[in-house]
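Quiz preparation item.
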């Protein structure tokens, strides 16, 4: 017996219909001469989308996420990098268009080289909900309607976050809890790496230990993370938790000064 695909794009997928998991590429949206936003869908059950607000296409400034259950996300403090500023109050929205499609939009203001660039419902990406996810949602809804006694499994999984700190170094944030929604109170393992993979530094960050500081210079090749560089975890007035980096990184002939550069932003699940 052959399986017939849905008659039209609006027909709900059937549980017995073969599907292909289609991972759409990231969308890179310029927002001013020196700034851009990279928008990347995860194609999970909540349609989670990672965003990276960047300076000159390579240095992350703000890395929020939005989803069906987390929207909008607001920038708690003005962020500055080089000639550009992302002003406090900037918001990112998740907008469901229908069961098959959603869009990510931006409201706020960017100041770049002494000029203002308003973002009024700027579209950062229009994405399709993969058939596999629609099948999973349909099965979930059917189970709820039928009252089927099925085991309940949580789909939420805390992501590992990689943030570029200089042209040849980055920070990886790895949560230690994987069985619930992201919880800032659970410790994060912080590792700093040279682009070639060599580890420069490893520390543990949590609500009980909200600041970790580099005691000495750490150098690999032409990359040096300088003494007193620090990574902090704090809760803002808007209830969001932010992991931020402050300090100096020398990369070749370039010296990069980080002043509370946001590496990751999380909602409080409690």
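Solution:
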């Amino acid at each position: 017996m052959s399986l017939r695909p849905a008659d039209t794009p609006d027909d709900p997928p059937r549980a017995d219909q073969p599907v292909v998991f289609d991972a759409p590429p990231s969308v890179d949206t310029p927002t001013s001469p020196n700034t851009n936003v990279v928008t990347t869908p995860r194609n999970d059950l909540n349609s989670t989308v990672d965003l990276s607000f960047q300076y000159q296409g390579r240095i992350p400034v703000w890395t929020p996420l939005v989803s069906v259950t987390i929207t909008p996300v607001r920038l708690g403090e003005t962020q500055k990098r080089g000639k550009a500023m992302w002003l406090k109050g900037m918001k990112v929205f998740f907008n469901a268009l229908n069961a098959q499609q959603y869009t990510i939009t931006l409201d706020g203001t960017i100041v770049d080289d002494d000029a203002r660039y308003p973002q009024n419902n700027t579209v950062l990406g229009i994405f399709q909900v993969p058939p596999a996810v629609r099948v999973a949602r349909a099965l979930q809804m059917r189970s709820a309607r039928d009252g089927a006694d099925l085991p309940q499994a949580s789909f939420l999984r805390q992501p590992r976050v990689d943030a570029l700190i200089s042209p040849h170094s980055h920070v990886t944030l790895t949560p230690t809890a994987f069985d619930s929604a992201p919880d800032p109170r659970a410790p994060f393992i912080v590792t700093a790496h040279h682009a070639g993979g060599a580890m420069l530094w490893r520390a543990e960050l949590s609500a009980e230990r909200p600041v970790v500081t580099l005691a000495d210079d750490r150098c690999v090749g032409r990359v040096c993370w300088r003494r007193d560089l620090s990574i902090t975890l704090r809760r803002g007035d808007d209830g969001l938790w932010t992991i931020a980096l402050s300090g100096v990184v020398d990369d070749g002939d370039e010296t990069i000064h980080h002043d509370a550069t946001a590496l990751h932003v999380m909602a409080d699940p409690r």
